[in-house]
Design brief:
The protein is mainly α. It has helices spanning about 10-20, 25-30, 30-45, 55-60, 60-70, 100-105, 125-140; strands at about 5, 50-55. It has a domain at about 5-80 and about 125-140. The chain has seven helices and two strands, in the order βαααβαααα. The longest helix has 18 residues, at about 125-140.
Length: about 150
Amino acid sequence: MPHTFLIRDPRRVVQGLAKHWPDCTWDEVGFEWLHRLFHGLAERDGAPPPVMFSEDLLDDPAGTARAYCAAVGIPFIAEALVWEAGDRREVSWYGEGTGPWHDNLRESTGIQRPTTGYAPLEDTPRRLEFYERSVPLFEDLLQYRFAPQPG
């Protein structure tokens, strides 16, 4: 199975870190390391690994999953994109909180766009710097993303 990269809009990444982990560092933002790892694997393997863009997954879960399965050579199973609401023991390692993340997970029945709101990056110059440094790395990775496949 090849390595796969799931990338998110750096604005959402940095805003989420600012809200939940206000003292994070540039290294912990992760885009520089992700970028290095991606290109190291592409050089080693002679081809870039599959890249999934989270917005594609949110906009078209089936098409994006179908494209991912094709990229890594596994069968697409449409039924895997829906599930019954309820507790998720598979994420218990994350902590048994009653916070919004776990509540949303328990209530979910499929892939859906998050409703989390964040403060503007401009409110914190350090976060704005992290975002601005992340954008070119993200854009480089984004050019390798696979497009959702129609059904």
